[in-house]
Amino acid sequence: MKTKSILAGIALVAINLLNSQTWTVVGDPEMNGLIYTGTVDTTNKLYVAGSFSYGLTPNGKSYVARYNYMDWEDVGNFGGNGMIEKIINDAANNLYISGEFKNASNRYYIAKYDGSSWSQLGNLESQNKINDIVTDGTNVYASGIFVNTSNGQTYYIAKWNGSNWTQVDSGNFNGRITTLFVRNNSLYVAGEFTNSFGYYCVYRLNAGSWSEVGKLRSTYPVVKIVVDSVGKVYASHSYQNNGSASAVLSRYEPVSNTWIVLNLYYPNIKYIDATDQVYAMTICGTPCQGIMRKYTSQSTEYTDYFVQTNSGVSADLNAIMMDNFGYLLTSSRAAFGEMRFGLLKSSSVFLQSNEITVSKETQIFPNPTSGIFTLRAKDKINSAEIYDITGKLVKKLNPNSVSTEINITGQPKGVYLLKTDTGKKQETQKVILK
Questions:
Q1: What is the pLDDT of residue 309?
Q2: CB distance 346 to 23 below 8 Å
Q3: I want to staple 222 with a disulfide (CB 3.0 to 4.6 A). Which of 19, 61, 237, 240 is the partner?
Q4: With contact defined as beta carbons under 8 Å apart, do 208 and 188 qualify?
Q5: How confident is the model at residue 12, as a pLDDT?
Q6: Is 37:84 a contact under the CB 8 Å cutoff?
Q7: What's the 3-state SS for the chain?
Q8: What pLDDT does residue 287 have?
Q9: pLDDT value for 429
Q10: What is d(CA 407, CA 24) in angstroms, rounded to the nearest whole number?
Q11: Predicted confidence (pLDDT) per residue in 312-352, tens digit
Q12: Whole-angstrom Cα distance, residue 284 to residue 27?
């Protein structure tokens, strides 16, 4: 059977350059080393980690910092002996980190912060670096090269269930797993392993069974994957181009069970938000400029954002994440000076405005709103409740009329949920406060 080239499914991509977005510095002062990773917990607390320490001069230690909406503060005085490459939080907002740091036995490990102190997470240790960690809210998954102490078997994925570590794969991989992602009760993995045809690929674990996701047929290892809510998988990898590797971003389409190529210009996946928009980092221009590239699952188009402040254009975009109100955050180097690093925040909400429900029963206008908007329905509105992105009730009204004015002026900018009940129908719509 003939093997199709990965480029056979290449998509024609429309490019939209948007330079009107402005970026502001988060906190003071900037870091003395690289911000490589970050996370936002359920209470909208912002954490970053990487190779920075505290003070004017780097001391070879790596710390975790938290933004308290005034400046940066140390979290638990971790002080690891190597760069922190991944930080995540579970549903209880415990923090977990992995990277190049080692314990007293000279082994790589995962550290946990429980709100008061850091400690090693269980007895999982490795002579090789732990490549990635993810959580489904309760369990933590780690990828690396581990050895089962009972039978000496090498395995690549371990699972922490809150009390102990267990082996996930049964020796069915032939190389390192460098990227993990959890979505819809499934664990997706990719990296340096190949299928029976010798191609690098993506695998999925669901209900205890492993299966290959389509036929990616990559000729080089997969660097990074993310998965959206309907099972579309994005993969950063490479293909054979005149005898050398060329970077490519591909997307798996579950309806047709095929992979398509979205982009050939060195896209490095960084983040996927709550509305399935995928953000990647690429480089172009002279001098070298960092570009944040946004993809949507509904099309093959992308939008480029040049990340810059008044002090300069960013050349490095390492960590990209989003707070609970829809503002993007990205780490930067050039915008702070050659030997300084920091975090930048977008000037407007990035969540898709077209995610707002258009209802035949109730109407919201204007939306987006500056704070005051009108809610109108076909029937009398018994109740209207406004919730923020964390699920906190912001305002409740009992209009007992078909139209009412709602005022959320003074609330933080971002995305809110409006729940209405007319007695005949209950609806939930999104309101954007700009």
A1: 75
A2: yes
A3: 237
A4: no
A5: 37
A6: yes
A7: CCCCCHHHHECCCCEEECCCCCEEECCCCCECCCEEEEEECCCCCEEEEECCCCCCCCCCCECEEEECCCCEEECCCCCECCCEEEEEECCCCCEEEEECCECCCCCECCEEECCCCEEECCCCCECCCCCEEEECCCCEEEEEEEECCCCCCEEEEEEECCCCEEECCCCCCCCCEEEEEEECCEEEEEEEEECCCCCEEEEEEECCEEEECCCCCECCCCCEEEECCCCCEEEEEEEEECCEEEEEEEEEECCCCEEEEEECCCCEEEEECCCCCEEEEEEECCCCEEEEEEECCCCCCEEEEECEECCEECCCCCCEEECCCCCEEEEECHHHCCCCEEEEEECCCCCCHHHCCCCCCEEEECCCECCEEEEEEEEEECEEEEECCCCCEEEEECCCEEEEEEECCCCCCEEEEEEEECCCCEEEEEEEEC
A8: 53
A9: 81
A10: 28
A11: 777 678 899 998 878 899 998 877 776 678 899 988 778 76
A12: 28
Question: Which parts of the chain have pLDDT scores under 70?
Answer: 1-20, 56, 265-266, 283-289, 310-311, 315, 338-339, 352-360, 389-391
**CB-based contact 61:101 (threshold 8 Å):** no
Residue 81 CA to residue 94 CA, distance in Å, equals 21
CA–CA distance, 54 with 57 (Å, rounded to integer): 8
pLDDT digits (tens, 9 = 90+) for 255-296: 999 999 987 766 789 999 988 999 998 766 545 567 888 999
Buried b (16+ CB within 10 A) or exposed e, 80-100: beebbbbbbbbeeebbbbbbe
Q: Are 323 and 314 in contact (CB under 8 A)?
A: no
The reported pLDDT for the residue numbered 357 is: 42
Tokens (6 digits) for 324: 């609970």
- What length does the chain have? 434
Q: Are 61 and 344 spatial neighbours (Cβ–Cβ below 8 Å)?
A: no
The residue written with tokens 């009204």 in the block is 397
